[in-house]
Amino acid sequence: KLRTRPQGIETGYVFSTGGREERLTLPAGALTLVAAPTSHGKSTFLRNLALQTAQDNTEGAVLYFSFEEDMESTIVELVNTYVGETLTLPSRDYNNLTTITEYYRTGADRWIKAEKRQNFKEKEAEFMRDYIEQGKLRIFDKDFSSNELVEVINYIAKNITVKAVFIDYVQLLYKQGNRLQRNEELKEIAKDLRQTAKALKLPIILAAQLNREAKSPSEMHSQNIADSADLEREANKVLLLWNTSFTQTNGSSYNPTSIEAIKRPELGTARHIYAKLSKNRGGIPSIDALFSFDGNTGKIEPNYNEAEEYEPLAF
User: Fold this and answer.
1) pTM for the full model?
2) Which of 33, 7, 11, 22 is nearest to 204 (CA)?
3) Tens digit of pLDDT for each residue in 305-314?
4) What angle do CA 50, 53, 59 make, to 5 degrees?
5) Residue-wise pLDDT tens digits, 246-280
6) Which of 59, 97, 169, 242 has the greatest count of CB atoms below 10 A from its CB?
7) How many Cα atoms within 13 Å fall on the side-chain side of residue 48?
8) By the 8 A CB rule, do 165 and 204 touch?
9) Order of strands across the sheet with 162-168?
10) Which residues are within 8 A (CB) of 104 and not within 5 positions of it... i.e. 6 or more apart?
């Protein structure tokens, strides 16, 4: 069984703390939670992971269930990140997303920089042809109940090869016929999804929202997951995110030039996503990383270098 068990999906992100390094892997047959406060990058990180998974050389389709945005908006976001270039300088009225949306709606490319137009059109056509039309990345925006979602995942997995399932985001799910309190309902939903991942030997990656107690990077904990701390118990890995471009208030005493600056000086600068693996079953616990982030393209840059050799730890 160990010989035939899937090993999970490697990503382009490496975590490193105090000389300890580990590449982020999405474990097969288990849940991975990607959690953040509102507007701190959970959906963006999920899309980056989904694109990386769809682009690797292994066989199978990536299923992406969007409960927050419709299919068209999700595709625009994915195209933007796939192209990965500044097409329009952000202003009050325009940015990459509004420019791409207008391109699809009217066919006009006037807001795209002249020197970027040809490359954008080639990359956009490549994405639609190679990933959407060929079914490597399958997007669903129907408002499924958790019961229906499990049925759909099982049905698809019986008919085609599936590499991974991404769900954005778990607090928008509800259980059909539920009479439980909300925290108990989410616990049951997470348990159903974990059992589905285990039965199908698939990685299932859930975005989740942190509650108001997560006011700074130092105040982010797995127990801060909104509506249910039990979600953390069902997960194999819990990844917490913080967008350094946001200045936090809400009564927090956090100061990026003092608390975290000793460990991560870059936390005081914009255009980064701070990530902490607060739960990492079978791996190094409580390690973190800082990833370059372009809010206009939605690209969270991988920091894994294949040319580098990561030495195993000596015990």
Assistant:
1) 0.89
2) 33
3) 775 554 544 4
4) 130
5) 765 555 555 555 445 445 555 656 788 989 898 88
6) 242
7) 23
8) yes
9) 137-140, 61-66, 162-168, 203-209, 30-36, 237-243, 272-280, 287-294, 299-300
10) 72, 76
Task: Please say whether the beta carbons of 99 and 111 come within 8 A.
Answer: yes
Cβ atoms of residues 238 and 288 within 8 Å: no
| Helical spans, DSSP H, in the chain | 42-55, 71-83, 96-106, 117-127, 146-159, 182-200, 230-234
Read off the tokens for 183: 């925290």
Mean pLDDT of the region 159-182:
89
Which of 255, 207, 231, 229 lies closest to 36 in space, CA to CA?
207
Query: What CA–CA distance (Å, rounded) separates 40 from 44?
Result: 9
- For 310, the token pair is 């990561």
Residues in Cβ contact with 105 at an 8 Å cutoff, skipping those fewer than 6 apart: none
Phi, psi of 155 (to 5 degrees): -60, -50
Task: Decide if 287 contacts 277 (C-beta within 8 A).
Answer: yes
Q: Using alpha carbons, select from 199, 203, 193, 202 the residue that is nearest to residue 231.
A: 193
